[in-house]
Write a structure and sequence with these properties.
SDR family NAD(P)-dependent oxidoreductase, alpha/beta, Rossmann fold, globular, binds nicotinamide-adenine-dinucleotide, oxidoreductase, seven-stranded parallel sheet
């Protein structure tokens, strides 16, 4: 388990997988900063604070360098350091239905890269100085098993997540000397309203049937792996991408 009182920043923590991670770290006694563009992040922070946890919200567009700088300033002023950064924010459910590669607009491709790839780099760049000062830190990125599966008609998203896996390895080498580990999770298809909207309704039961553990995947299925990567026990694991998909792809 992550050290109690650890300062944990979760981007895109306002809903979906990020919200589950925020709830889990708050339940562990961590001090959690939710960085998101949606009001639900604020509501979540209020709800958990009223229940006795230390959770705050900083409205942040991860693709905007100035906003990310303001997030780092807020963390510095509030806590002086950051222990764990979970780069979870991503454009996924807002992409609409899958499209053949020839039909994807340049503006959409650029928007996905700006948030899913450049956003990970910008937030890491801004928060690493708050880890370096203490010679320790954990960066946990959110990739996707679509990279390993080569999912068709989703080329901008898959490319953006492939770059996250590559960045994870490169940053692990750069940040190892500072005592900072950098890893990624690659979730399989999590059944949420978003995935139901994006995918053919017949596909979800088919996807569940392809798993070694043949059941629907939920956001809770990711919590244990992220907790582990953030924990002291994972201090010698870095540059890795852990596929959490119930056993569909193996790498
Ligand atoms: N749901 C899945 O099946 C699945 C599978 C593999 C990977 N993922 C990845 O997991 C992460 C979470 O996905 P989810 O299913 O919870 O999706 P979601 O759309 O429910 O959540 C994404 C969160 O990111 C936030 N966000 C979007 N753009 C942002 C920006 N510019 N700045 C800050 N926050 C921003 C959203 O407001 C939202 O809170 C994403 O990176 C996604 O690509 C999801």
């Amino acid at each position: 388990m992550t050290d109690q009182h650890a300062v944990v920043v979760v981007t895109g923590g306002g809903r979906g997988i990020g919200e589950h991670l925020v709830r889990a770290f708050a339940a562990d006694g961590c001090r959690v900063v939710v960085a998101d563009v949606i009001d639900e992040g604020d509501a979540l922070a209020r709800e958990l604070s009223e229940a006795g946890s230390e959770v705050s919200f900083v409205r942040t567009d991860v693709g905007d360098e100035q906003a990310v700088g303001a997030l780092a300033d807020a963390c510095r002023e509030r806590y002086g350091h950051v222990d764990v950064l979970v780069n979870n924010a991503g454009i996924y459910q807002d992409l609409g239905r899958k499209q053949p590669f020839e039909e994807i607009e340049v503006a959409d491709f650029e928007r996905v890269l700006r948030v899913n790839t450049i956003g990970v780099w910008l937030v890491t760049k801004a928060l690493v100085p708050l880890m370096r000062a203490r010679g320790a830190g954990r960066v946990i990125n959110t990739a996707s098993s679509t990279v390993h599966m080569g999912v068709p008609n989703f080329v901008h998203y898959v490319a953006s997540k492939g770059a996250v896996i590559a960045m994870t390895r490169s940053l692990a080498k750069e940040l190892g000397p500072d005592g900072i580990t950098v890893n990624a999770i690659a979730p399989g298809l999590v059944e949420t309203e978003a995935t139901r909207a994006l995918n053919d309704p017949d596909y979800l039961p088919v996807a569940a049937g392809q798993r070694a553990i043949a059941r629907p995947m939920t956001p809770e299925d990711l919590v244990g792996t992220v907790r582990h990567l953030a924990s002291p026990g994972a201090s010698f694991v870095t540059g890795q991408t852990l596929i959490v998909d119930g056993g569909v792809t193996f790498a």
